[in-house]
Amino acid sequence: LRLAVPSILQQSTVSIGMMIVQAVVNPFGTQALAGYSATMRVENVFSLIFVSIGNAVSPYVSQNLGAKKTGRLKKGYHAALILCFAVLAFVVIETLHTQISSLFLGKDGTALAYQVSGDYMRWLGYFFIFMGIKMATDGVLRGLGVMRPFLIANMVNLAIRLS
Hints:
Strand content: under 5%
Mean pLDDT: 86
Number of helices: 6
Distance between the termini: 30 Å
Radius of gyration: 18 Å
Shape: elongated
Largest sheet: none
Helix content: over 70%
Number of strands: 0
């Protein structure tokens, strides 16, 4: 339970944050909601990549810690940071946000839907860098069994998403 509960909460914070933000966006109407939803699909794709890398680095760290090969922990963490390709995600989002939005909004998307999607996507791109670093770090902390900072970081993450 000491390891599982914080991990479960970490896996849930992104989804909980998305649901709460969705509730805030709903009153703005269908076109704003369409733009927001398009960007959420993009965020889901990148979030899944970041979370998966964090999940992969966790057993790597645990296995090397158990084998007393602590020198490999730093190498694994650096590899996870590179695999996150968060900077690449940022560049893609910043330069191709309209084209990405059009994948989800198509020809039926209104100017407002495209504006909401583009504005949100450009803002979100900056946070992909932090999200990639955070998820890799979360995996290392989970692998080390250091759960208190891990849990605190995830509660801060949820608070930031809601503010």
